[in-house]
Amino acid sequence: MAIRKIVKFGDEILNKKCRPVEKFDEKLFQLLDDMEETLADANGAGLAAPQVGILRQICIVDVGEGPIELINPEIIGEEGEQEGAEGCLSNPGKYGIVKRPMKVTVKAQDRNGNWFQKTGEELCARAFCHEIDHLHGILFTSHASRMLTDEELESGEY
Ligand code: ZN
């Protein structure tokens, strides 16, 4: 396993659409393991393959219950609404107010190519949306109603 370098906002790779994964092989396992180590090291809630320079439909979400690997994911259900602060490991220290569904169901493949469904609420739902957006070249800043100021960040309210 190895920690990979996280691409930062401004790099055009983050605006590109990812291609589906077709081969569920050793190379994919290596990438997933590296992404998990990178995510844990950065202490984030999610990481998408383009953030480590790979234009494939792969992302990981970890909201404290261990990593969920999502390959070729698609959102198949949304319920409710939540509004709150959201950030990105590719844009460190910056947060915006983003509206997301309260509950999201995704359909995805696991590392062996088996399809499964998973429903997440609150932070998990937010992370599913954020990471799947990355696979379509969409960044959270395009959804943000506004960015938080340094004073707001320091206040600890968000
Ligand atoms: Zn992100």
How does this model look, in words?
The chain is α+β, with helices and mostly antiparallel strands. The chain has one domain: Peptide deformylase (Peptide Deformylase). Helices cover 23% and strands 30% of the residues. It contains 3 helices and 8 strands. The strands form 2 sheets. A 5-stranded antiparallel sheet has the order 1-2-3-6-7, with helices on both faces. The radius of gyration is 15 Å and the shape is globular. The termini are far apart. The mean pLDDT is 97. The structure holds zinc ion. Zinc ion binds next to α2. The site of zinc ion has 5 residues, from α2.
Give the topology.
Elements: H1 26-42, E1 46-48, E2 58-61, E3 68-79, E4 82-87, E5 95-100, E6 103-109, E7 115-121, H2 123-135, E8 146-147, H3 150-155
Antiparallel strand pairs: 1-2, 2-3, 3-6, 4-5, 5-8, 6-7
Bound molecules: zinc ion.
Zinc ion binds at residues 88-90, 130, 134.
